[in-house]
Automatic annotation (TrEMBL):
Belongs to the UPF0162 family. This is Protein SirB1 N-terminal domain-containing protein. Residues 42-193 form the Protein SirB1 N-terminal domain. Gene3D superfamilies: Tetratricopeptide repeat domain. It comes from the Bacteria. It comes from Chroogloeocystis siderophila 5.2 s.c.1.
Length: 274
């Protein structure tokens, strides 16, 4: 199968040691499948410019909280970035170029802008994949503060994260320490693509949802649920041989899955012997 040039560049970017993956480039390669004429360098330069302007505003005493305050003032007051609460599932919220241009996005893409700016001013931060809401934190040992880029860079402590988690799920949820672990670059990109996948499923753009799943599986080839979803999308798009292969693989990996009876019935309809 011939993949678009953007997919090939994405593949090359992610097939190197995790710490060497350039998140901004990889995210722009994701966007480039939607916008084939997208100029990657233009948006990398935009991030460079943002960082240069933040650097000019940094106080002489660069304590972590003062740096965060400066970045917040620049991104949210000067540039007007904000969380997109009105059209959360708009696919454009998952494309870094759109987020930079439109000054709005979802937690993970706003986090990416924040991470890229702080990386360029030598204040590295890490992504935190809390369930239901993406956060970031300074890459400083023993410093337990978190930043919520979706809510104007609000600074949170662990107890605040507990409250936010319960608000998200509208019921008490115990904050496990693992919820605040830093994510790898591959995990970050997979979460971005998962958001894009669901945005396209909501719009019933199945071929584009399939493209998102394919890229998740480039990052993590053995995730059973993504193999299943790729199979179901193949089925809906009429590629039945590929659907049978993926659905059989899914059942082999998780034969006791709660949806296994449904998948087996579908395979029987497709004429498979599973």
């Amino acid at each position: 199968m011939d993949f678009p040039l953007a997919r090939q560049h994405f593949f090359q970017e992610i097939h190197q040691p995790d710490a060497q993956i350039d998140l901004a480039k990889a995210a722009l390669y994701i966007a480039q499948e939607e916008y084939p004429q997208l100029d990657i360098e233009e948006y990398l330069n935009a991030l460079d410019t943002m960082a240069a302007e933040v650097r000019e505003q940094l106080p002489s005493e660069q304590y972590p909280l003062r740096i965060i305050q400066t970045v917040n003032r620049y991104l949210y007051d000067d540039l007007g970035f904000s969380g997109n609460t009105t059209s959360y599932y708009d696919p454009r919220n998952s494309f870094l170029n759109d987020v930079i241009e439109r000054r709005t996005g979802i937690p993970i893409t706003l986090s990416l802008v924040y991470l890229e700016v702080t990386k360029r001013i030598d204040f590295p931060m890490l992504g935190v994949g809390m369930p239901g809401h993406f956060l970031i934190r300074p890459n400083i040992q023993q410093m337990e503060i978190f930043v919520d880029p979706f809510h104007r860079g609000e600074v949170l402590f662990p107890e605040d994260c507990q409250d936010k988690l319960s608000q998200i799920y509208a019921q008490p949820v115990k904050l496990e320490s693992s919820f605040l672990d830093a994510v790898t670059h591959r995990q970050f990109l997979a979460r971005m693509l998962t958001n894009l996948k669901f945005a396209y499923l909501q719009k019933e753009e199945l071929a584009k949802a399939l493209a998102a799943v394919e890229r998740i599986l480039l990052l993590f080839p053995d995730i059973p649920i993504e193999i299943r979803d790729r199979g179901l999308l193949y089925y809906q798009l009429g590629n039945w041989n590929a659907a049978i292969n993926d659905l059989q693989t899914y059942l082999a990996k998780v034969p006791q899955a709660s949806d296994a009876p449904v998948i087996r019935r579908l395979l029987n309809q497709l004429g498979s012997n599973s």
